[in-house]
Each structure stands twice: as C-alpha cells, then as structure tokens.
C-alpha cells in the first residue's frame, strides 16, 4: 500500500521521523528542555503513525499473496477470509483518514469552553444554560472530566455566561467544531402567550494548554481584581474575596474565575483561561493573515450561526456548514454531538487537501 502525497503522505512523515530521530540522538538538544520535549512529543506521534501504516501495508501484502495462492488452488474459503480482512482494513483506513482532521498542534489536549448568552434576556440566558448542560452531557458520554470554572447567572433564569474546563484526549480537537453562534427556535416557556422565539448563544473554545507551552505573559501586563463570589442577586455571597478577575492590559482581554474555594485556585484557573485566549488571539491573527493572502475574507465578531436547533414548529438540528442534520433535538441536547463534530472534521480534511499551495 503506497500512500505518497495526498492527505496521507507517509513518505514525507517517514522522512520527518528520520530527521527528528537524528536530532533526538544529539544530547545537545536538552540544552533547550522545552524544545527537546516538543521534539520528543512529535517523534512519539510520528512513530505511532508510521508504525500503523507500515502494519497496514504488511497486512495488504500478506493478503495479496494469499489471494494468489487461493486463485491457484481455487480455495473459496481463503478468498472469503481475505474479503473479510479487506473490509476490516478498509474500515481502519477510513478511521485513519478521519484522524488526519485531528492533527492540529493542540488537538490532543483538553479544552476551555465558554458560552455567552446573546441578546434577548431570559430567553437567551436559558438557552445558554441548555448548551452548558449539553456539553456536560457530551463530556460525560466520552468519559472526560468537565469542571465549571466560572458562571454568571441570569436575573430570572439561565446564565449570562459560563466557562468550563473539559479534560480528556482529543477534547479540543473535537470541541473546536463547536465554536460559533448556536441558534434555538422554540415556543418560549417564559411567554404567557406561547409565542415562538429565536435565541442565540456564542460558544468559544480554547486549548487547555500545558504548562510547558511557551505563552509569555509579563506579570506587569496583568491587573488582578478580587471580589466576593456569589450567585445572582448576591445570594449565598462568600464572606471573603476569593473570586478573581484578570485584565491583560496590552490586549484588553478580561477573564474571571469564582468557582474554586480559594483565591489562589481561582487565580490559577483564570491564568489558564488567559493563556488560552492569548494563544487563540495569536492563532487568529495568523489565520486572518493567511486568509487574506489567499484572497478570502474573515468575518469578525459574532458572524452567522453555525447550527440551528429547531423545537417548533418541527423538530430538527442542522449544522449550516456541513448540512448534517438530526431529527431528534432532545438526543442532541442530551450530548449526542459526535455526528456533527465528525462531519465538520471530515469536511475540514477535504478542504485542507483541496487548498492550493
């Protein structure tokens, strides 16, 4: 099985593997511990990838030899076994092709997910809380650890904004598909006239960066304010000022955390979010620059919705980027998001492969 060029390009990965193995054999790489760790991490991933493809190629070669033997001896039993094996190899090939979509530098990492209610008061805030529950349920289905780090309640119901950390292998790679505006259409439970309402909420996704990722933050550029954590209306207000708000002065980015018990824990969580936002901002600048070079236009701000959840007058959830849809909204709101995520990831592989150099 030859996989040169195209989306697989195994010979290029083999060449990169040999180059990195040569670097890893040089003890001087540890003069830069952070760079050395990055080399070793990339080396491990490449070894796994190349090993899998070598194994698949060997299986194909073995089956071809068996097929020749079966043809010579007219043995239908061997031929049937080869057919079953070919189906298994094809399925593995499809799975490996899909994993190419999860090849970003932080796709293996955890994620920081934030939800912000759009305009519309209680309706939008209730929708934001529904999304929060949806992502908690999705994380639970996948066996991920999900933890709330900040929550600002609405005046009557729902949440104005919420931030959570979702930790697990490939969490960021999958959740990256969720960033954007989510639209809900339903009969409002808060409208006495039972009219249909449309609500919006914005979902932001950042990588949960390891401490060894180099994001420089000058302490002098960060202003920290502390305040008392509590729910809407000041209920259950803590006596001590444990909640933390960090302002990165050069960029104007503001983050806060109030769900931990101590001020130091909240500051640590807030710094993780700030590092993720600064990384994301730098990544956005690069992507915008590259898009302009390609002649594309990037919409800034909220932009258009990526997905519609319709509960009335019919029931359907449809992703507007991929046209993937499900006729059972409740299953989606209960965390059944994998189909939407995988459709987006597969489409992204196709787009990347068709992009001109």
What are the salient characteristics of this protein?
11 strands, 3 domains, 21% strand, disordered N terminus, Methane Monooxygenase Hydroxylase, Chain G, domain 1, 8 helices, alpha+beta, three-stranded antiparallel sheet, Alpha-Beta Plaits, Double Stranded RNA Binding Domain
**Mind describing the biggest β-sheet?**
8 strands, mixed
CATH architecture of the largest domain, please? 2-Layer Sandwich
- Helical fraction equals 40-55%
Mean pLDDT: 80
CATH topology of the largest domain: Alpha-Beta Plaits
What percentage of the residues does DSSP assign to strands (E)?
Answer: 15-25%
Number of strands: 11
Name the structural class: alpha+beta
Helical run tally:
8
Largest beta sheet: strand ordering: 2-3-1-5-4-9-10-11
Number of domains: 3
Rg, Cα atoms, Å:
25 Å
Report the end-to-end length measured between terminal Cα atoms. Answer: 26 Å
- Give the helices and strands as they follow along the chain: HHHEHEEHEEEEEHEEEHH
Please mark out the parts with pLDDT under 50 across 5 or more consecutive residues, or reply none: 1-7, 231-239, 293-301
Q: Which CATH top level class of the largest domain fits?
A: Alpha Beta
Shape: flat
